[in-house]
Amino acid sequence: MQENSTMQASGSDNFKGPQVTIGLDLGDRSSNYCVLNAAGDILLEDKLPTTSLAMKQLFGRMLRSRIAMETSTHSPWVSRLLTDLGHEVIVAHAQKVGLIVKSRKKDDRLDARTLARLARIDPELLSPVQHRSAEAQIHLTEIRARAELVRARTALVNSARGLAKSYGERLRKCGTQQVGRELAMGLSAELRAALDPLMREIESLNEHIKEYDRRIEKMAKDTYPEVKLLKQVKGVGDLIALGYFLTIEDPHRFKKSRDVGCFLGLQPGRRNSGESEPQMHITKEGDRYLRTLLVQGAHYILGPFGEDCDLRRWGQKLAERGGKKAKRRAVVAVARKLAVLLHRLWVSGEVYEPLRNSQKVARAAA
Fold first, then answer.
1. Cα–Cα–Cα angle for 201, 205, 210, nearest 5°?
2. Which of 96, 116, 126, 291 lies 20 to 30 A from 356 at CA?
3. How far apart are CA 44 and CA 4, in angstroms?
4. 90 by DSSP, 3-state: which?
5. 58 alpha carbon, distance to own chain's centre
6. Order of all β-strands in the sheet with 30-36
7. Residue 22: strand pairing partners
């Protein structure tokens, strides 16, 4: 193999013939890349800044190539940019590429080389994922930003309650959205003064969260009217429906609605060998926040305000089996069923019938 400096001098013109395969290991400041020819020989290994300008200058001069990268903070925008330049882009699931994750000789240069070699042999070895569009990502960013504010509010409210208890006093019970300076009126003057800035910060977060709620409601109504199909299920509001819609984005990427449960990590893992079939926990792969939203929806469906429906009846039967974790398992199982149901309603456009299966059984028994 030639030295780096010699290959750099020749630029990208050396691989403008047959399609080449490129492994791109994305870093925060700079990224390593490795270029292979059709025979698998290394044509070039080098670095470039992780900026849109540098990407365009390098990859914009090349003919259509296969470029492989791992999922990362920068992979969404980089994959869209390279696709727009006409390249075939493969985004590998970062946790499923064992040759990289479990390697004992791991560095950015070798990672780029491994990505290129795997992409050249068989892209399926990279467990490719599909990034969402720029529009879906920016709208989903609003939902994620709201989630961060909710998380910050919860932490501050817990801190306020803990500080009050350590002084021998208590804030009365209420929802986090009701916490503010008014709630502290029952405290002693000195404790109220000490907690006043904290309470004002919580009030500010409440206002910002309400603003996000209004924006999400408007987005669901004006930009994505399809979410009405998902909101037919009682317990699925604008937040869950829109989060589901934007995360999945393309419902036809799944051959069957049941595949959505696996995609979101709500399916139990499997490690069967011979006659051994151990019971595994759910995989927890896929989007963690959407999984959280679906679990919240499942809690509502199984809770005191959930309407009578097939999902609720099925979940209650699971919970009645007993055991310390029966209720928790029932919630997760209902969340998985909910994910499947929402996908089915989305692709079919059907009117939701809460007791459809129960009515079928009743008619068959009559």
1. 150
2. 291
3. 7
4. strand
5. 31
6. 42-49, 30-36, 21-25, 66-70, 88-92, 128-129
7. 35, 67
Do 172 and 183 meet the contact criterion of CB atoms below 8 Å apart? Answer: yes
The pairing of strands 88-92 and 128-129 is: antiparallel
Q: Give the span between the Cα atoms of 243 and 237, in whole angstroms.
A: 10
DSSP state of 2: -
Topology (CATH) of 4-129: Nucleotidyltransferase; domain 5 (3.30.420)
pTM, full prediction: 0.83
- Phi, psi for 266 (deg, rounded to 5): -100, 5
**DSSP β-bridge partners for residue 147:** none
pLDDT at 276: 63
Tell me the C-alpha to C-alpha distance, in Å, between residue 312 and each of 149, 192, 258, 265, 302.
31, 44, 18, 21, 6
Whole-number Å distance between alpha carbons of 54 and 65: 17
The contacts of residue 184 (CB under 8 Å, 6+ apart) are: 171, 191, 192, 195, 196, 199
Q: Residue 19: which residues within 8 A CB-CB, separation 6 or more? A: 38, 63, 64, 65, 66
SS3 content of the chain, % helix, strand, coil (to 5): 55, 10, 35
DSSP-derived letter for residue 156 is H
Predicted pLDDT of residue 273: 62
Q: For residue 9, what pLDDT is reported?
A: 35
Which are the contacts of 32, defined by CB distance < 8 A and separation ≥ 6? 24, 25, 45, 46, 47, 108, 109, 111, 112
Query: Are β-strands 42-49 and 128-129 bridged in parallel, bridged antiparallel, or unpaired?
Result: unpaired
